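Support request from a user on the community tier.

User writes: "When I paste my structure tokens into the form, the page sometimes reloads and wipes my input. The last time it worked, I copied everything first. Here is what I submitted, just in case something in the input itself triggers the reload:"
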């Protein structure tokens, strides 16, 4: 098992209680990296859930249980729709806004902070949509399983 540790940020200011602009930019950049990593994970999980959702929907539609499981099918379609929205929200978080001229270090810091806030907002939206996808998918599968398990078992004629 390998443990990767990033080097500590060196203080360039004389006062250890105050951060310099390069230090603040390094902190914001580290947070943006974590935000992009979370967005990538959301994209991956939503893609897998979308595939699994369509597999379950096609299984239900090809079986004899399709008409009795309309609630499960509707929940699974809702899961697919929410997952698609999360899939779109994740790359939107990574798109760069139009370039802005920054005449000073403080303007660069402000612009970078605004970009980071925008990325966090979209990734947060994607995470909430992923939670909704998981909830709808799980509920749909449970409703389907409940309906199948509660159906009477047909009796076979004696041979």
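"...and here is what came back when it finally went through:"
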């Amino acid at each position: 098992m390998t443990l990767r540790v990033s080097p500590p940020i060196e203080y360039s200011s004389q006062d250890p209680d105050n951060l310099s602009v390069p230090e603040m930019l390094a902190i914001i950049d580290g947070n943006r990296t974590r935000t992009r990593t979370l967005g990538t994970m959301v994209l991956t999980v939503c893609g897998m859930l979308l595939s699994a959702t369509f597999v379950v929907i096609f299984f239900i539609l090809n079986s004899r249980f399709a008409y009795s499981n309309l609630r499960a099918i509707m929940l699974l379609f809702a899961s697919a729709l929410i997952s698609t929205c999360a899939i779109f929200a994740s790359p939107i978080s990574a798109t760069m806004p139009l370039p802005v001229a920054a005449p000073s270090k403080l303007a660069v810091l402000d612009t970078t902070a605004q970009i980071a806030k925008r990325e966090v907002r979209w990734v947060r939206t994607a995470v909430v949509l992923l939670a909704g996808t998981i909830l709808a998918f799980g509920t749909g599968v449970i409703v389907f399983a409940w309906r199948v398990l509660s159906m009477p078992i047909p009796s076979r004629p004696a041979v």
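Agent notes: The reload is a front-end session timeout and is unrelated to the input. Residues 29-95+103-150 form one domain. The chain has one domain: 29-95+103-150. Escalated to web team.
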